[in-house]
TrEMBL record:
<dbReference type="Pfam" id="PF01229">
    <property type="entry name" value="Glyco_hydro_39"/>
</dbReference>
<dbReference type="InterPro" id="IPR051923">
    <property type="entry name" value="Glycosyl_Hydrolase_39"/>
</dbReference>
<feature type="domain" description="Glycosyl hydrolases family 39 N-terminal catalytic">
    <location>
        <begin position="33"/>
        <end position="538"/>
    </location>
</feature>
<dbReference type="InterPro" id="IPR049166">
    <property type="entry name" value="GH39_cat"/>
</dbReference>
<feature type="signal peptide">
    <location>
        <begin position="1"/>
        <end position="27"/>
    </location>
</feature>
<dbReference type="InterPro" id="IPR000514">
    <property type="entry name" value="Glyco_hydro_39"/>
</dbReference>
<protein>
    <submittedName>
        <fullName>Beta-xylosidase</fullName>
    </submittedName>
</protein>
<comment type="similarity">
    <text>Belongs to the glycosyl hydrolase 39 family.</text>
</comment>
<keyword id="KW-0378">Hydrolase</keyword>
<dbReference type="InterPro" id="IPR049165">
    <property type="entry name" value="GH39_as"/>
</dbReference>
<keyword id="KW-0326">Glycosidase</keyword>
<keyword id="KW-0732">Signal</keyword>
<dbReference type="InterPro" id="IPR017853">
    <property type="entry name" value="GH"/>
</dbReference>
């Protein structure tokens, strides 16, 4: 989904807006009290963060793509999922912005199908070898099957700066033959089962297309999409009856979603003639809406969270599907990952990482409030191969060097499955942040868990919608009913685990030499600090933590 910033003039100075100028006095720290009760469980915390995706599937097999997939696989080996567009698009596998191809399907002179799984197998092999599994998006339409009007170009030539509607070319159309479409999906699924094994493929997610409610991705009616979906799901299940199938990965959970939910539960299936369509999970997208204000970016976390809440509410109100797992198939601060520039420079630094911590925490809270089964929160962010350093793409690394946001996912990976009681006297309430975002005092929030081996993991963030300088938070953290004697503190902020800040200190080189590259890699890594707890009442432990504006930290206290 695409939502552009307002067209205010952006300047490179905005990149530095969140840092105090040389010699500028830092405002006095804000006192914050955080209290955790290690004995008070408040529910499960699913590892919903373990989903990622990208438009460009072929980047996965390139040097920096392979390197980044290793890091994603390390987060939770075998339980990280990757969703990619263009897995069935026609072409030779050469990537481009918002494009990719595998040439899985073409036709001979007699009109008979010719299947070639070489490129798509290489992509999936690359995932699996690094501990990542497919969230397998079935799309887009192969050129030989596209019903696009004669003369419509098949591959778009979009690049950053072009009008977004230029991406909507021949791959966005329904098939000329639904029988051939279904057989393509059947043959692909059967091939995957034969190559990877039934048990492996049963762990994947299968969904059809992307954002069929958007004219940028689908050039037909909602009913025609339901038909496309039915034939694809039936074909997957013919090859693998136990496959996990769902959808519809709409841009917004609006009227299109209503029609889809009705169709899969109570309308006639286009492929089978029976009532309903197998549905193992439901998916929709939710994005924020940043804009430029007085020369700096102001994030739109409230819009993002309202979109999430709307999707949860819609599914919860639909009785037949209310308990189904939900994957927010794209969940991001804004819409266009491939749109760089100074107006998107916040993605390079700690604004993006603190937004990620604050937004994921609230999405977990919204899921609990609506009593829905939240399975995944998919970050549409990967990497862009061989592009300028820190160009402002929404990505997890730049030229193979990790950005601060990736470290927040490493913090998430250390959280446990059981949530425990935690409060902060400076945390913006759920209702307030959904309604208005964070426009007054900063949001200094917390989320705490118990790990499977009995440790207490406390996540803390210091977030504000406006990317401007602000006072540190001087946090007094008390963990009641815990007697651990050692703790580690992990930081992602202006001074820690921040390759962007290190690159700026170097003079922002666009061709770092080998020594500089190694320095950037080292600067991107989190270095845990050993912290000694003080004794607190109720047999607890107390810590003092200073957290800069847009910083994130995780304190892990050993089991008693």
């Amino acid at each position: 989904m695409i939502r552009h910033f307002a067209t205010a003039t952006a300047t490179v100075a905005a990149v530095f807006a969140s840092m105090p100028a040389a010699g500028q006095a830092q405002a006095p720290a804000r006192s914050v009290t955080i209290t955790v009760d290690a004995r008070k469980a408040v529910g499960a915390l699913p590892p919903s963060w373990r989903f990622f995706g990208a438009d460009e599937p072929n980047y996965a097999t390139m040097k920096d793509g392979r390197k980044l997939l290793v890091e994603l696989g390390k987060l939770k080996h075998g339980e990280v999922f990757f969703r990619a567009h263009n897995l069935l698009s026609s072409g030779d596998g050469t990537p481009a912005f918002k494009w990719g191809s595998t040439n899985a399907y073409r036709e001979g002179g007699d009109g008979k199908p010719i299947y070639d799984w070489t490129i798509v197998d290489n992509i999936i092999d690359t995932y699996l070898a690094r501990g990542v599994r497919p969230y397998l998006q079935i799309g887009f339409m192969p050129e030989a099957l596209s019903s696009a009007p004669k003369g419509t170009p098949y591959q778009h030539l979009w690049r950053p700066g072009f009008a977004y509607n230029l991406i909507a070319t021949g791959w966005t159309y329904p098939p000329t033959s639904y029988d051939k479409w279904a057989d393509l999906i059947y043959q692909w699924t059967r091939h995957n089962v034969e190559k990877y094994g039934r048990d492996e493929v049963n762990r994947w997610y299968f969904e059809v297309w992307n954002e069929p409610d958007s004219k940028f991705y689908w050039q037909a009616s909602p009913d025609e999409f339901n038909k496309l979906h039915d034939f694809a799901v039936h074909a997957v299940r013919r090859a693998l009856p136990s496959a996990r199938v769902g959808g519809p990965d709409v841009a917004t959970a609006d009227g299109f979603m209503d029609g889809f939910l009705r169709h899969v539960t109570s309308e006639r299936n286009y492929a089978t003639g029976e009532i309903g369509t197998p549905t193992d999970f439901l998916s929709f997208h939710a994005k924020g809406s940043p804009r430029f204000v007085d020369g700096h970016v102001r994030m739109g976390i409230a819009t993002h969270l309202r979109n999430v809440d709307n999707g949860f509410t819609k599914i919860a109100d639909f009785t037949a599907l209310a308990s189904k797992p939900i994957v927010i198939g794209e969940s991001d601060p804004e819409g266009c990952a491939a749109c760089p520039g100074p107006q998107n420079a916040y993605r390079n630094g700690t604004m993006y990482s603190s937004y990620t911590a604050a937004s994921f925490a609230r999405i977990w809270d919204l899921a609990a409030k609506r009593r829905v089964n939240l399975d995944g929160i998919l970050s549409w962010s990967f990497e862009f191969e061989d592009q300028p350093w820190f160009a402002g793409y929404r990505q997890l690394s730049t030229n193979g060097v990790d950005l601060p946001v990736l470290n927040v996912f490493r913090l998430f990976a250390q959280l446990g499955p059981e949530r425990i009681a935690a409060t902060s006297d400076a945390q913006v309430s759920l209702d307030a942040i959904v309604k208005d975002g964070v426009r007054g005092e900063a949001d200094v929030g917390t989320l705490a868990t118990r790990t499977t081996d009995g440790r207490v993991a406390v996540l803390m963030w210091h977030y504000h919608d406006d990317d401007v300088a602000g006072p540190d938070a001087a946090i007094q953290l008390t963990i009641a009913n815990a007697k651990g004697r050692a703790a580690k503190l992990w930081r992602v902020d202006r001074d820690h685990a921040n390759s962007f800040a290190a690159w700026q200190r170097m003079g922002s080189p666009q061709s770092p030499d080998a020594k500089q590259y190694a320095e950037l890699e080292a600067a991107s890594a989190m270095q845990p600090e050993e912290v000694a707890p003080a004794t607190a009442p109720r047999g607890g432990r107390r810590f003092a933590v200073t957290l800069p504006r847009q910083g994130v930290a995780l304190l892990v206290l050993d089991a008693q």
